């Protein structure tokens, strides 16, 4: 118990003292996950919007698959990207395995379905409300889609935040494709896993506290966005 | 509406000839195995205000949507000066729905959006939108999010947005159904002034007083059929059809 308490104390000292190792790890985590969310937004928003507006045979099946992919196990995503990027894999030439880029790719694969699925739902609901007005004003499909994305901006940002929450907290994908190499691909979650098994609880706990704080921040942001959208625009 | 813009002539797009008058031939609409509109023949002239009346389920809103080209008839045809209500024709019309559909942006943003869709130049949008809002008595609310407005203000905004596009034809689906008397009065005044500036108005209503005040002619529907069509005055004083008589007396009893 005493051990536990002193570990906590040491963890706080690391955080308050901006321990260089800790700062580096947190920095890489944020860089990788934020980049992944950005990529997921660029891919997932248009896909979700198109699914929300267009009607085509097999659409329902695509939506089922998309919703299922929201729960894709990170280790499976990591394994797939590993196979793609490994020396013998189709993209092995690029030499990306065990780099931050590989981690970004893996997390993008995890986050894109979340963004696309939530976008689809938001856009479809809005479209049901706007469709007749669009037709009355003779709004073309491209402008209609852009309008729906803009008018759904609060909900869509919530989706991006949810995606960020998943990316920053997952360990399975980044440890497989990143390799947890010191000063190169070590992020918060992989470090916690490693340091805990080594018995180095201070760093692990310090990172854990930061992760939880981030989770609280993200959720607070989601809540206040909901509030904003409820009073101003719903 | 305020006087500043009242004198302003309506600027029509120069490219094409007017889309008025309209003719409706053997217009039929079926859905789910039911015939909701059955063989309507109708001619709509260029300027007089047409009020579509009838009990619930008679097909009033449906007729508006078919005239505006929001729905495609099962058979028969709607022709605006010979043209089907395609995108180009719809652009020169406007419709205000019973429950106004407002975008999740500012009051001003709702109007400029419609103008942008119509291809109005960026510089002109703002001025024209602000003039339309001033006409609707909404100038002070221009920066507010549109969806926090009261029901009456929302209806006025929808009307201002429709008017800002200078439509040749304006469709109103029960424009005052959800408004209190004061709100309804303001909307009626706006509609009357839009008509005075040369726009053809086609509206549905259950409000007999409103039909008298705004209507030049009444088209009476009953169970998807056109039962009677008369000048407003004679429709109310001497309805020709059995159904219209029953409808009018029933409503008056209530």
From TrEMBL, chain A:
It is found in: Cell membrane. InterPro entries: ABC_perm_TupB-like (IPR049783), MetI-like (IPR000515), MetI-like_sf (IPR035906). It is a multi-pass membrane protein. Residues 26-222 form the ABC transmembrane type-1 domain. Coiled coil: none annotated. The chain crosses the membrane at residues 33-54, 61-85, 97-118, 156-181, 201-222. CDD domains: TM_PBP2 (cd06261). Keywords: Membrane, Transmembrane, Transmembrane helix. The keyword Membrane applies. This is ABC transporter permease. It comes from Rhodovibrio sodomensis.
From TrEMBL, chain B:
It is found in: Cell membrane. PROSITE patterns: ABC_TRANSPORTER_1 (PS00211), ABC_TRANSPORTER_2 (PS50893). Its main location: membrane. SUPFAM superfamilies: P-loop containing nucleoside triphosphate hydrolases. InterPro entries: AAA+_ATPase (IPR003593), ABC_transporter-like_ATP-bd (IPR003439), ABC_transporter-like_CS (IPR017871), MetN_ABC_transporter-like (IPR050086), P-loop_NTPase (IPR027417). SMART domains: AAA. Residues 19-248 form the ABC transporter domain. GO terms for molecular function: ATP binding. Pfam families: ABC_tran (PF00005). It is a peripheral membrane protein. Gene3D superfamilies: P-loop containing nucleotide triphosphate hydrolases. The keyword Coiled coil does not apply. Keywords: ATP-binding, Cell membrane, Membrane, Nucleotide-binding, Transport. Belongs to the ABC transporter superfamily. This is ABC transporter ATP-binding protein. It comes from Rhodovibrio sodomensis.
């Amino acid at each position: 118990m005493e051990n536990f308490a002193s570990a906590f104390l040491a963890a706080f000292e690391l955080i308050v003292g901006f321990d260089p190792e800790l700062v580096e790890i947190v920095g890489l985590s944020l860089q990788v996950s934020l980049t992944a969310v950005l990529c997921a937004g660029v891919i997932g928003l248009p896909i979700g919007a198109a699914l929300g507006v267009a009607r085509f045979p097999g659409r329902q099946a695509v939506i089922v698959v998309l919703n299922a992919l929201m729960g894709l196990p990170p280790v499976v995503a990591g394994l797939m990207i590993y196979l793609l990027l490994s020396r013998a894999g189709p993209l092995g030439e690029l030499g990306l395995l065990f780099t931050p880029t590989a981690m970004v790719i893996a997390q993008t694969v995890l986050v894109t379905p979340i963004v696309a699925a939530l976008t689809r739902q938001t856009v479809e609901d809005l479209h049901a409300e706007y469709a007749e007005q669009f037709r009355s004003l003779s709004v073309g499909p491209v402008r209609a889609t852009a309008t729906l994305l803009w008018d759904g901006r609060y909900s869509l940002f919530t989706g991006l935040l949810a995606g960020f929450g998943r990316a920053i907290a997952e360990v399975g994908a980044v440890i497989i494709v990143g390799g947890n190499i010191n000063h190169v691909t070590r992020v918060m979650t992989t470090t916690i896993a490693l340091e805990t098994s080594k018995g180095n609880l201070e760093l692990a706990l310090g990172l854990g506290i930061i992760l939880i704080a981030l989770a609280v921040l993200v959720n607070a942001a989601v809540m206040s966005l909901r509030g904003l959208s409820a009073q101003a625009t719903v | 509406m305020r006087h500043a813009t009242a004198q302003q002539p309506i600027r029509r797009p120069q490219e094409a000839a007017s889309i008025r008058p309209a003719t409706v031939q053997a217009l039929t609409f079926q859905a789910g195995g039911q015939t909701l509109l059955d063989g309507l023949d109708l001619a709509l002239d260029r300027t007089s205000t047409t009020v579509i009346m009838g009990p619930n389920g008679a097909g009033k809103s449906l007729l508006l949507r078919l005239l505006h080209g929001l729905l495609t008839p099962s058979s028969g045809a709607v022709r605006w000066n010979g043209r089907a209500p395609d995108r180009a024709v719809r652009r020169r019309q406007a419709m205000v729905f019973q429950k106004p559909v407002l975008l999740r942006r500012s009051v001003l943003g709702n109007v400029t959006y419609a103008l942008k869709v119509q291809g109005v130049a960026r510089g002109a949008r703002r001025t024209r939108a602000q003039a339309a809002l001033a006409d609707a008595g909404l100038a002070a609310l221009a920066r507010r999010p549109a969806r926090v407005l009261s029901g009456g203000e929302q209806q006025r905004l929808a009307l201002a947005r429709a008017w800002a596009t200078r439509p040749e034809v304006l469709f109103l689906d029960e424009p005052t159904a959800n408004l209190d008397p004061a709100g309804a009065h303001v909307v009626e005044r706006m509609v009357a002034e839009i008509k005075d500036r040369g726009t053809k108005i086609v509206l549905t209503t259950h409000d007999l007083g409103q039909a008298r005040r705004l209507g030049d002619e009444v088209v009476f529907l009953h169970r998807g059929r056109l039962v009677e069509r008369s000048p407003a005055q004679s429709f109310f004083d001497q309805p020709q059809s059995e159904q219209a008589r029953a409808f009018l007396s029933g409503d008056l009893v209530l």
